[in-house]
Amino acid sequence: MSAIVYRVGHDLELDLVINLYQESTLGERRPIHDRDCMAAMIRNANLVVTAWEEDRLVGIARSLSDFAYCTYLSDLAVRRSHQRRGIGRELVRRTREAGGRAQIILLAAPAAVEYYPRLGFIRHPQAWILPAEASGQ
Ligand SMILES: CC(C)(COP(=O)(O)OP(=O)(O)OC[C@H]1O[C@@H](n2cnc3c(N)ncnc32)[C@H](O)[C@@H]1OP(=O)(O)O)[C@@H](O)C(=O)NCCC(=O)NCCS
Predict the structure, then answer these.
(1) Does residue 39 lie in a domain region?
(2) CA quadruple 8, 28, 44, 98: dihedral positive or negative?
(3) What CATH number did the domain enclosing 16 receive?
(4) Which 3-state string (H, E, C) describes 82-130?
(5) Kind of pairing between the strands at 103-105 and 70-78
(6) What is the pLDDT of residues 7-43, one digit of tens each?
(7) Ligand 1 atom nearest to CA at 112
């Protein structure tokens, strides 16, 4: 297997990102069939770290950060074929490094609840979500 190369930046081909979301299973919980929404998610994210094996996108950490106080890590995904090789850990490490002193906040997918404590995350008992309003309301 080739070495994994990490990059920071959101200038990414939409189809590559959608394919990665599908191939990591994160696509089951993200709006991958709404291309406009996915394009906006990439365009407006201001801290995106990606992992590449040659020209193949194998991992992503997509965040919004103020680079001072908080970074919201919305999507962390590693291609199934490349999981359990430390890529997720490295994507989070680089996200943290790029965010300066900002703390990272996230919502874990059900299958990843046991993952984040391994990376040093602390469960927060007072987290709240205000769901988006349905369109037309
Ligand atoms: C969760 C995910 C990002 C982890 O990425 P990864 O590159 O496979 O993880 P790493 O190789 O960095 O794993 C780091 C450690 O966590 C462990 N680990 C990996 N996935 C785990 C899981 N789902 N649950 C518990 N531990 C896990 C690894 O064994 C490793 O342990 P070690 O430090 O003792 O060696 C990846 O499995 C994924 O993309 N899952 C599907 C999408 C998803 O659920 N994303 C999270 C959205 S919140």
Answers:
(1) yes
(2) negative
(3) 3.40.630.30
(4) HCCCCHHHHHHHHHHHHCCCCEEECCCCHHHCCCHHHHCCCCCCCCCCC
(5) parallel
(6) 999 999 999 999 999 999 999 999 999 999 999 999 9
(7) 23
Residue 99 forms part of a structural domain? yes
109 CA → ligand 1 middle, Å: 11
Ligand 1 centroid – CA 68 distance (Å): 27
H helices within 2-86, ranges in order? Answer: 14-24, 35-44
Tell me which residue of 60, 93, 90, 64 sits closest to 78, measured CA to CA.
Answer: 60
Tell me, using a 6 A CB cutoff, whether residue 87 lines ligand 1: yes
- By C-alpha distance, which of 110, 111, 116, 101 is closest to 61? 116
Q: Sheet containing 56-65: give its strands across.
A: 4-8, 47-53, 56-65, 70-78, 103-105
Q: How far apart are CA 58 and CA 77, in angstroms?
A: 8
Query: 72: which strand partners?
Result: 64, 105
* 72 contacts 64 by C-beta, under 8 angstroms: yes
Reported as a single tens digit per residue, the pLDDT across 58-75 is 999 999 999 999 999 999
